[in-house]
Write a structure and sequence with these properties.
19 strands; globular; mainly beta
């Protein structure tokens, strides 16, 4: 490992409600599932199937607020603690962070199905009115349910909540700058829904890292993040465009990065990480934390994708 840092953390994002707007924070507590509160909630249809911006891009306009102290390690909610949701044309929705929940059975997201906590009729009506179709808001029941990440890419049984991939997603300012040099319109980082945004490294260097430390916390890379259509959703308007997909097809396709590999038509931006838990206190990532690289591959063709 180099004694000099390869980059530093410049933004941290937590997405409490899957596919709704993220919260930019100065620090966030680590957990085996990702940052605490990340993708704890999911909007579902009348059959209990999870919505994402792929089919409901207007979810991008749903703002999420939580108590600032909720991102401190060890914080526990009280009866006065709420998550607050706001959306165009809607009155704010307040949901208690510590209340008795009813069980919602038959919830599903991709290949996972199970039960979850139902956030009640008021939240269900709010999302039904906003989306114009029968909907509900549910919360992952960590105590009774387990959802495993794809074992194809990481042999240890890693648990996730309602995220698509793995616990943490890292990307860099240098990589975003290169995309914007080629894109027909400015693309902000919120299109890519990263958790950890860094600067100071060469463009796409984060794709090559396999073992790193962020501050004092160790992480293992899992695989490059191949992108769906969600980055094409303008997070300020909810409108779907062509960028950055058309740019990524030109500069970040599997055909270009991994000419001898599989998945030639996929496009990539960012890398998934999993936290290597260690026995010490202070499991918090904060702005300004340095990143040290323990190990890396030499070329994108060697990265797991």
């Amino acid at each position: 490992m180099s004694s000099e840092s390869a980059a530093k953390v410049t933004s941290i994002f937590v997405y409490p409600v899957k596919s709704c707007r993220g919260i930019s924070v100065s620090h966030a507590a680590l957990s085996p599932y990702g940052f605490r509160w990340d993708r704890n909630w999911l909007v579902v249809n009348e059959r209990g199937r999870g919505y994402t911006q792929r089919v409901e891009p207007r979810l991008a306009l749903v703002e999420v607020e939580m108590p600032t102290e909720a991102f401190d390690e060890g914080w526990e909610p009280t009866k006065d603690s709420f998550i607050v949701l706001k959306a165009p044309g809607m009155q704010p929705l307040k949901i208690s962070l510590c209340k008795e929940h009813e069980v919602a059975d038959g919830v599903s997201l991709w290949d996972w199905s199970g039960s979850a906590w139902h956030e009640g009729p008021e939240a269900a009506k709010w999302f039904s009115d906003y989306l114009g179709k029968t909907s509900a808001l549910i919360r992952f029941d960590i105590e009774s349910q387990a959802r495993l990440a794809d074992p194809e890419y990481y042999h240890n049984k890693q648990k996730v909540l309602f995220t698509d991939g793995y616990q943490y997603l890292i990307a860099s300012q240098g990589s975003l700058d290169v995309v914007n040099q080629h894109a027909s319109e400015p693309i902000p980082i919120n299109r890519f829904r990263a958790n950890i945004f860094v600067e100071g490294c060469e463009p796409f260097d984060e794709d090559l890292w396999t073992k790193i430390k962020i501050g004092k916390h160790s992480f293992q890379s899992v695989r490059l993040c191949y992108r769906c259509k969600i980055p094409q959703v303008n997070q300020d308007t909810g409108e779907v465009g062509e960028e950055p997909a058309q740019t990524l097809r030109k500069i970040r396709s599997g055909k270009l990065l991994r000419p001898q590999g599989t998945h030639a038509q996929r496009v990539y931006f960012g890398q998934f990480l999993t936290w290597i838990q260690e026995d010490h206190s202070g499991n918090v990532i904060k702005l300004g934390d340095p990143i040290y690289v323990f190990d890396k591959v030499n070329h994108f063709s060697e990265a797991i994708a």
